[in-house]
Amino acid sequence: MTTLKLISLGVTDDERAGEFWRRALGYVRRAPRFEGGDWIVLEPRPGEPGAAIAMDVSQSPVQEFPRVHLDLDAGERDLDAEVDRLVGLGARHVDWPYYPEHLPPGARPYVVLADPEGNRFCVEGHRAGGGGRRATPTPTGP
Questions:
Q1: 44 contact partners, CB below 8 Å, separation of at least 6
Q2: Are β-strands 52-57 and 6-11 bridged in parallel, bridged antiparallel, or unpaired?
Q3: Cα(4)–Cα(67) distance, rounded to whole angstroms?
Q4: pLDDT of 40-83, one tens digit each?
Q5: Residue 5 to residues 2, 10, 54, 74, 140: CA-CA distances in angstroms?
Q6: How many DSSP H helices and E strands does the chain contain?
Q7: Backbone phi, then psi, for 20, in 5-degree steps?
Q8: What is the spatial distance between Cα 92 and Cα 99, in angstroms, rounded to a whole number?
Q9: What is the pLDDT of residue 139?
Protein backbone atom coordinates (compact mmCIF):
# COMPACT_ATOMS: atom_id res chain seq x y z
CA MET A 1 0.00 0.00 0.00
CA THR A 2 1.27 3.47 -0.83
CA THR A 3 1.70 5.87 2.10
CA LEU A 4 2.05 9.63 2.38
CA LYS A 5 5.75 10.39 2.87
CA LEU A 6 6.13 14.15 2.46
CA ILE A 7 4.02 17.26 1.95
CA SER A 8 5.66 19.97 -0.18
CA LEU A 9 4.69 23.63 0.04
CA GLY A 10 5.52 26.12 -2.69
CA VAL A 11 7.15 29.18 -1.11
CA THR A 12 9.16 32.20 -2.21
CA ASP A 13 11.30 32.39 0.94
CA ASP A 14 12.14 28.87 2.07
CA GLU A 15 14.08 29.96 5.16
CA ARG A 16 11.19 32.11 6.44
CA ALA A 17 8.62 29.40 5.70
CA GLY A 18 10.85 26.68 7.18
CA GLU A 19 11.31 28.63 10.40
CA PHE A 20 7.57 29.29 10.74
CA TRP A 21 6.61 25.64 10.22
CA ARG A 22 9.48 24.39 12.42
CA ARG A 23 8.23 26.49 15.32
CA ALA A 24 4.53 25.92 14.57
CA LEU A 25 4.83 22.12 14.54
CA GLY A 26 7.82 21.63 16.84
CA TYR A 27 9.60 19.79 14.01
CA VAL A 28 13.31 19.45 13.38
CA ARG A 29 15.16 20.23 10.16
CA ARG A 30 16.28 17.17 8.25
CA ALA A 31 19.81 17.13 6.85
CA PRO A 32 19.91 17.51 3.03
CA ARG A 33 19.64 14.21 1.16
CA PHE A 34 22.72 15.03 -0.89
CA GLU A 35 25.56 17.58 -1.02
CA GLY A 36 24.20 20.91 -2.23
CA GLY A 37 20.54 19.93 -1.71
CA ASP A 38 18.60 23.12 -1.12
CA TRP A 39 15.15 21.88 -0.08
CA ILE A 40 14.23 22.55 3.50
CA VAL A 41 12.59 19.45 4.91
CA LEU A 42 11.14 19.37 8.40
CA GLU A 43 10.09 16.23 10.21
CA PRO A 44 8.69 15.22 13.59
CA ARG A 45 11.17 14.60 16.37
CA PRO A 46 12.23 10.93 16.60
CA GLY A 47 9.41 8.79 17.97
CA GLU A 48 6.71 11.44 17.39
CA PRO A 49 3.94 11.01 14.80
CA GLY A 50 3.40 13.26 11.79
CA ALA A 51 4.28 13.66 8.13
CA ALA A 52 7.38 15.51 6.98
CA ILE A 53 6.91 18.89 5.29
CA ALA A 54 9.18 20.46 2.67
CA MET A 55 9.64 24.03 1.47
CA ASP A 56 10.03 24.12 -2.30
CA VAL A 57 10.94 27.50 -3.81
CA SER A 58 8.26 28.43 -6.33
CA GLN A 59 7.19 31.50 -8.27
CA SER A 60 3.59 30.28 -8.54
CA PRO A 61 1.07 32.66 -6.97
CA VAL A 62 -0.71 31.66 -3.77
CA GLN A 63 -4.25 30.37 -4.37
CA GLU A 64 -6.97 32.26 -2.54
CA PHE A 65 -9.06 29.09 -2.37
CA PRO A 66 -6.47 26.29 -2.62
CA ARG A 67 -7.45 22.85 -3.74
CA VAL A 68 -5.05 21.32 -1.21
CA HIS A 69 -4.25 22.65 2.26
CA LEU A 70 -2.99 21.47 5.64
CA ASP A 71 -5.31 20.76 8.57
CA LEU A 72 -3.73 21.08 12.00
CA ASP A 73 -5.17 19.74 15.24
CA ALA A 74 -4.70 21.94 18.32
CA GLY A 75 -4.78 18.81 20.48
CA GLU A 76 -5.47 19.49 24.15
CA ARG A 77 -4.65 23.19 23.74
CA ASP A 78 -7.51 25.71 23.52
CA LEU A 79 -8.18 26.54 19.86
CA ASP A 80 -8.02 30.31 20.35
CA ALA A 81 -4.80 30.04 22.36
CA GLU A 82 -3.23 27.92 19.61
CA VAL A 83 -4.38 30.36 16.90
CA ASP A 84 -2.88 33.23 18.92
CA ARG A 85 0.40 31.30 19.18
CA LEU A 86 0.51 30.68 15.44
CA VAL A 87 -0.31 34.32 14.66
CA GLY A 88 2.52 35.29 17.02
CA LEU A 89 4.84 33.15 14.91
CA GLY A 90 3.83 34.96 11.70
CA ALA A 91 0.55 33.41 10.54
CA ARG A 92 -2.34 35.69 9.68
CA HIS A 93 -6.10 35.35 9.78
CA VAL A 94 -7.84 34.73 6.46
CA ASP A 95 -11.24 36.24 5.71
CA TRP A 96 -12.80 32.85 4.93
CA PRO A 97 -16.37 33.02 3.56
CA TYR A 98 -17.12 29.30 3.96
CA TYR A 99 -17.38 28.80 7.72
CA PRO A 100 -20.58 26.88 8.45
CA GLU A 101 -23.22 28.74 10.44
CA HIS A 102 -23.54 25.75 12.80
CA LEU A 103 -21.26 22.79 13.32
CA PRO A 104 -22.71 19.30 13.06
CA PRO A 105 -22.89 17.31 16.33
CA GLY A 106 -19.45 16.16 17.42
CA ALA A 107 -17.60 18.51 15.06
CA ARG A 108 -15.01 20.89 16.46
CA PRO A 109 -14.61 24.53 15.42
CA TYR A 110 -11.76 25.54 13.14
CA VAL A 111 -9.97 28.68 12.02
CA VAL A 112 -8.44 29.35 8.59
CA LEU A 113 -5.02 30.99 8.66
CA ALA A 114 -2.23 31.68 6.18
CA ASP A 115 1.44 31.04 6.83
CA PRO A 116 3.95 33.87 6.22
CA GLU A 117 4.06 32.82 2.55
CA GLY A 118 0.27 33.04 2.19
CA ASN A 119 -0.37 29.27 2.09
CA ARG A 120 -3.76 28.57 3.68
CA PHE A 121 -4.16 26.08 6.50
CA CYS A 122 -6.83 25.23 9.07
CA VAL A 123 -6.51 24.73 12.80
CA GLU A 124 -9.18 22.64 14.49
CA GLY A 125 -9.73 22.25 18.20
CA HIS A 126 -11.91 22.86 21.20
CA ARG A 127 -12.66 26.16 22.90
CA ALA A 128 -12.16 26.24 26.67
CA GLY A 129 -15.45 28.04 27.33
CA GLY A 130 -17.39 25.86 24.90
CA GLY A 131 -17.20 28.61 22.26
CA GLY A 132 -20.70 27.98 20.96
CA ARG A 133 -21.55 25.90 17.94
CA ARG A 134 -20.44 28.41 15.31
CA ALA A 135 -17.28 27.55 13.36
CA THR A 136 -16.30 31.14 12.65
CA PRO A 137 -13.22 32.18 14.61
CA THR A 138 -13.48 34.68 17.43
CA PRO A 139 -10.83 37.07 16.00
CA THR A 140 -11.46 38.19 12.41
CA GLY A 141 -9.78 40.28 9.77
CA PRO A 142 -6.56 40.10 7.79
A1: 25, 26, 27, 28, 50, 52
A2: parallel
A3: 17
A4: 999 999 999 999 999 999 999 999 999 999 999 999 999 999 99
A5: 9, 17, 11, 22, 34
A6: 2, 8
A7: -60, -55
A8: 17
A9: 44
